Amino acid sequence: MMTSQKRILVIGSGGREHALVWKLSQSPRVSKIYCAPGNSGTATLATNVEIKANALESLKDFALAKQIDFTVVGPDDPLAAGIVDLFRLNGLRIFGPTAHAARLESSKSFAKDFMMRHGIPCAQSRVFSDSKEARSYCDSATYPLVVKADGLALGKGVMIVEDARRARDAIYKLMDERILGSAGSTVVLEEFLEGTECSMHALIDGDSILVFPDAKDHKRIFDGDLGPNTGGMGAVSPCPALDDTLRQQVRTEILERFLKGLRADGIHFNGMFFPGLMLTANGPKVLEFNCRFGDPETQALLRRLKSDLLDLLEACEQGCLASIKPAWDERAAVSLVLASGGYPGNYQKGKEITGIDRASKIDDVVIFHAGTTYEGGRLATNGGRVLSVTAMGAQISDAIEAAYQAADCIQFENQQRRNDLAERCTTRW
After folding, report:
1. CA 338 – CA 386 distance, rounded (Å)
2. Is 363 left (phi over 0), alpha (psi -120 to 50) or beta?
3. pTM of the full predicted structure?
4. What count of other Cβ atoms lies within 10 Å of the Cβ of residue 86?
5. HEC string of 78-129?
6. Boundaries of domain holding 132
7. What integer is the mean pLDDT of 44-49?
8. How many structural domains comprise the chain?
9. Do 95 and 72 contact (CB within 8 A), yes or no?
10. CATH number where 200 lies
11. Residue 109 resides in a domain
C-alpha cells in the first residue's frame, strides 16, 4: 500500500460526509481534503467545492485538475449514476461500487430478485410496473403492507399501509402522480416484517468481507416508531437486540451468501455494503440493500473506529482487505439527529442555530453538520436533517445521556428530534 501523502476528495454534503472528512483528517497520510459540495462542518476541516454530488463530469474534471489521489463517495445517487465507472475510465482512484453493482441499492426489484435467487432471507414481495395491476393486487394482499418505490428516494420511498384503501392511495401517489419522480415508476409490494430493525456494515473487495460493528437506525420521525419514514433520525451502536449468535447468523446467511451471489452473477462489488435487517421470530431478514455508508449510522460507527479510515478504504479499493484488522473502541456510540420542523415533508430553511459551541464542550461529544450554512455571519438551517449529535459512553445509556445533554444546548426554531433512542431496541417475540 502506498504511504505517500494523499489529496482526498469526499463527495456529499450531509452528516455522513462531515463524519468521513472528520475521520480522514486524522490520518497522518492525508495532506489535503476537498469536499463537494460540503457543509458548514466540513468547511472547518476541508476545502468545500461548489460542485453538486450529481455533477459527475464536473467532479471528474476537478479531481483531474487538483490531482486527487483518492475519492470517497458518500451518497447513493452518484454511485447509481456511474461516478466510479467515470473516474476509473479517467485513471482516478475512487472508493465505491460501479453503477452495475450499485443497482443492488438503486433498484429494489433488482435487489429482491438477487435475494430470492441466492437464498438470502427476506420478505415475500410482488413487483409491479403497471399502476392498475398494483392497485388491483391490494384487494387480496395481507396487511400491514409495505409499499416501496423501486428507485432511489432519499429514504422517503417506503410507506407502511394498514389497509387496501391506503395501499391504493400510496401506489397512486408513487406511480401516477410521480411524487418521487421516476423512482416510483415501478413499485415493490412487500410483506410487513415484525421485529427489531438494525444494520451491519461491511467492506467488500470482491473476495473478502470486513465486518463493522452493528448499529440500529431509527427511521420513523416520531417517538414510538410513529409517523413517516425518514432518512434516519438516530443511530445506536452496538444494537442491543443483536447477540453473538445472531451476528454470526447474519454473517453466514446474509453477508456470505451475498458474496457468493455476486460471484455467481459475475458482479464485481468493491465498496461499503450494508443490509437493512429485521430481526424477526424466524431469524434475521433483509429489508433492503445499501451500497454505501449509512447515515446516521456512519456518524456513530466512525466514532468507534480507532484505526486509520484511509487504510481501510484503500485496502478495499486495492483488493487486499484480508490483510487489514481494524481496531474498534469497545464503548457504545450514539448519533442523535436534530431535524427541521416539517421534515420529512416540507420544511423551512434559514433558521438560526445557537448553542453548538456549548454542546461540543461536553465530554465525548462531537457535533456533525448536515443541513447547515452560514448566512450573514450566523449559522442557519439548510436542510431537513440539520445536525448529528454524537456521543460515546461505557454503556449505551451513558452515551445517550451525553447526546441528549448536548442536544439540549442546541436551539433552532421548530426543531424536531427523537426522544426515545434505543428504548425500542429489544426484539418483540
Report:
1. 6
2. beta
3. 0.93
4. 18
5. HHHHCHHHHHHHCCCCEECCCHHHHHHHHCHHHHHHHHHHCCCCECCEEEEC
6. 124-191
7. 98
8. 3
9. yes
10. 3.30.470.20
11. no
Nearest to 135 by CA among 91, 175, 108: 175
Same domain, 180 and 213: no
Nearest CA to 231 among 306, 292, 153?
153
Q: What is the dihedral of CA 25, 26, 32, 35, to 10 degrees?
A: -10
| Chain centre distance of CA 73 | 12
CA 419 to chain centre: 21
d(CA 220, CA 71): 32
Q: How far apart are CA 277 and CA 425, in angstroms?
A: 13
Q: How far is CA 144 from CA 97, 156, 164, 191, 428, in A?
A: 34, 18, 9, 8, 17
The amino acid at residue 386 is V
Which residue among 174, 191, 208 closes a domain? 191
pLDDT tens-digit series, residues 140-179: 999 999 999 998 877 678 889 999 999 999 999 999 999 9
Mean of the pLDDT values across residues 193-203? 93
Please report whether residue 218 resides in a domain: yes
Residues 6+ apart with CB under 8 A from 127: 109, 112, 150, 186, 187, 188, 189
Q: Any idea what the CATH number is for the domain that residue 173 is in? A: 3.30.1490.20
Mean pLDDT of the chain, nearest integer = 94
Percent of the chain with pLDDT over 70: 97
